[in-house]
Specification:
alpha/beta; five-stranded parallel sheet
Length: 239
Amino acid sequence: MANDKETGPPFGHAMRSHFQYDPSYIPLNHGAFGTYPKIVRDRLRYFQDLSESRPDDFFRFKLAGLLDPARGAIADFLGVDAGECVFLPNATTGINTVLRSLVFEKGDVIVYFSTIYGACEKTVGYLKETTPVESVKIPLSYPLGDDEVVIKLQDKIGALKSEGRRARVAIFDTVSSLPGVRVPWERLVKVCREEDTLSLVDGAHGIGHIRLDLGQVQPDFFVSNCHKGAPLVPNILDD
């Protein structure tokens, strides 16, 4: 999807006609249970019909050739190489994939904020039960300034070091769910890099809501969803 305001439909009520909403329904929470535009629905059904009409041929010979251009499109938008992009069912699956692929040792700690998405925190709890890793939750009580959020992460990583432990990975959002807050994730990535801590960014609500330039920020891991804010991409404002 082109990141060009001139190529997209006008933002606001005029955009509603591009979706499948019932006329009497007022959508207020697109981030949890939203829907995709009609043009996406039509393309989805086209590929479903294609796969059902020649299943073996589609999965063996066609699918890879269709995935590569799609990866290229999202890579261009995110400012990274297509080889760095992998499609997964959703952002939570991505968080699980990263965390459960790491080999943790005694003294390793997963650091995260209290605004973490619930399913991701459950994964952290599972890893605490099944591996040597520990976890530390940093409480955030809003209203809170960006500087304070950054300092809290710096201080916590420093405190762990003084105790002889290592912040192996830090998890944080681009835009948190509860409350809905734009997180200074770019600065948090920088802190992680300086402290030799892996950065795992939950960008589930990032695409379509804020500008993302992963090539410049360079987090270690970034996961997102395209079914939440991606239809809003042409209308992103400077943040």
